[in-house]
Amino acid sequence: MTHTSKLLALLVVALVLPSGACNDPLRVNIPTIVPPGSLSDTAALGTLRAGAIGNFSIAFSGDHPDGSGGTGEGVIMYGGLLADEWIDSETFPTRIEVDARTIQVTNSDVDLWYRLLHQARNAAEKAAARYAALLPNDPGHAEVLNLAGYTYLFFAETYCSGVPVSHLDAATGKITYGVPLTTAQLLDTAIARFAAATAVANSDTVTADATAKQAMLNLAAVGTGRARLDQGNFAAAGAAVTGVPTSFAYLSEHSEISTFENNGVFNGNTFDRRYSVADREGGNGFPFRTVFDPRTPSRRRVTASGRPGFGFDGLTPQYNSFRFGDRKAPIPLASGVEARLIQAEAALRLGDTTTNAGGFYTALNDPRVVSAGSRSYFNPSPFSRTDTLTNPVPALAALDTSSATAAGGAINLLFAERARWLWLTAHRLGDLRRLIRQYGRPANTVFPTGPYFKSNPSVYGVDVNIPVPITERNNPNFTACLDRLP
What we know:
mainly alpha; Serine Threonine Protein Phosphatase 5, Tetratricopeptide repeat; two-stranded antiparallel sheet
């Protein structure tokens, strides 16, 4: 996953203080607020785009977990906590509920996460509307449409069926309350946003930047392929990503300039020690630690005195991920490696797994060779401030029919490859749900189950998704989730 595409970077918007304020350090004229009237022409589009990207970053990766001084965690953290990528290593009962699969609608952290994702959706769609009115063919328009599509994907993959989508009229302050949308409707909406982004990118008459245009087309294609997998439309999923090069990666970029711009995966795990890398969680979880693989690097925290370290709770062994090694590490939202995994699944569903030269193994092996496509973002030092975080994944042995046999079948092999390549990028919960919904596996063979490692609760529950929080009942159209099915 090398960063070979020219990606549309996060803008830093600086507002200039009046000259009088420069002479008086105690006089501050709202330097961080953009007056609404200044957002009415094309000059404002960069500001709106930057805001949409910033809100999306928080919804995707967060900056610091609730209770650690930041805005909150993103879907990478809480989705992975409900799945088997993270275990809780701190004391908040709200996060313990998620880890133990016993989530209440009154859970205040769930309410925070839900609101952050809606804020990201709203910011992206409001920015897209302004682009449509002022500069419809600009590549920034395609980008915010793509980001909007991903918010709908995250709602579909993470929450129960029945998420309402409401809209605020900025001019009047009135809310148009949405009705509960089924998971299928959320996926349809995501695909519609990706289709709109594709149309905008293809109609670009504003810039001759072919690289930026192609990046937006690739981002829309991978998002479409992912949504089609969620729908069970495997042939359409494979077709959607055919033209995406393995070297493609669209990154959610981070920096150390402010807390809001930090990599929240690094902070929540390594710095704040509220999340620890899981391993075979509940007996059914994936062996992220005990089976070594360079794509999922982690190790036990060591204290200053050289002793094994624990999490924030002082009891849970703290294992830190080294995929994202500091606060400025970028995180891939979509990549050409994911495109190959989507194609592999499409081939699997066609039964093209019997020969090593078939589509299944060809797609799986493409990212495993030493090439642009076999690179990802890892850092061997958890507090490095100089590494560019583009250390390559070393060559991986080619997979073949014997690999599937050793894994217990081609399905197991595919989802193991997805677990490694897509680790900590908000894919795992959706994959576990698909194993139940599309491959007929019982939930208690997919999700962590049995005795829970903390005392309250003492056993895992049965949740396979996150409920819409009780605060949504302020919406007169909403009562509860339509269902909690996978």
